[in-house]
Amino acid sequence: MSNFPVIHMESVTKKYYIGEPNELQILFDIALDINEGEFVSILAPSGSGKSTLMNIIGLLDRPTDGSYSLSGNDTKSLDDIQLSRIRNKEIGFVFQNFNLIPKINAVKNVELPLLYAGVPQKKRTERAMELLELVGMGDRSTHDPSQLSGGQKQRVAIARAMANNPSIILADEPTGALDTKTGRMVMDLFHKLHKQEGKTIVLITHSPELASETDRMITISDGRIISDAERIDSLAGSGSDSDREEAEAE
Q1: 3-class SS at 170?
Q2: Within 13 Å, how many C-alpha atoms sit on residue 127's CB side?
């Protein structure tokens, strides 16, 4: 993990119906840095602003005020086409309901971000197959989404998120539509991508149990960050063997 912030927010706010009697503010003065290689959760109940924050992180929406830089790109002055290009290159999305295209098979779904990026077909297919093997779905590459279980669909979606080797994997309630056992498999895959592939992962969730698995937990309430804490065993694990032994002894 490096000290380079892939996400840097200063004083970010979000309002709707500005200047009208029903003006509504969702986010308040959000200041946030997420460094390259971190596995971070954003924990919040429904209606707290986490979806709005996720949309801003994912360049699907813009802040009303404040600044947001993604991988060193100040997003404030960029137009929608420029934001779309950066989003395709820098962010891999994983959604609760998978968002796979139903009429094309697994490998074609994984190829989609590469297609939009202008990668030639042979290289697209090679990359897509490599990623499907990584997530344990190589033998299902020609199956349509209707022929896959929920967990298999989510693994395909994770492979698709990795297609352009993005700076960030942004996962919105990725286990929400899965049973407990399958959700466990998906979380294990995220841990693998973080530890073995060095991926920066931002997990959006309302589940304290899932959030506790990440190395850093950011808690949102009523549009404000109310806590930002690193996991104690993660801190202990980043030190020397003697540091870890002392932490365990305590």
Answers
A1: strand
A2: 20
Q: What is the mean pLDDT of the chain?
A: 91
Structure tokens that stand for 174 in this block: 């990725």
* Parent domain of 97: 5-249
Could you read off the pLDDT of 106-157 as tens digits, one per residue?
999 999 999 999 999 999 999 999 999 999 999 999 999 999 999 999 999 9
Count of domains for the chain = 1
- Convert 69-98 to b/e letters by CB count within 10 Å (16 or more is b): bbbeeebeebeeeebeebbbbbbbbbbbeb
Q: Are 227 and 42 in contact (CB under 8 A)?
A: no
Helix (H, G, I), strand (E, B) or coil at 134: helix
- Cβ burial, residue 60 (10 Å; 0-12/13-18/19+): middle
- Share of the chain residues as helix, strand and coil, in percent rounded to the nearest 5: 40, 25, 35
Let me know: does 53 contact 42? Beta carbons within 8 Å.
yes
DSSP letters spanning 16-64: ESTTSTT-EEEEEEEEEEEETT-EEEEE--TTSSHHHHHHHHTTSS--S
pLDDT at 46 over 70: yes
**Banded pLDDT at 233 (limits 50, 70, 90):** low
- For residue 133, the domain's CATH number is 3.40.50.300
The answer to whether 224 and 25 are in contact (CB under 8 A) is: no
In this structure, what token pair is assigned to residue 212?
Answer: 């506790």
pTM recorded for the entire structure: 0.88
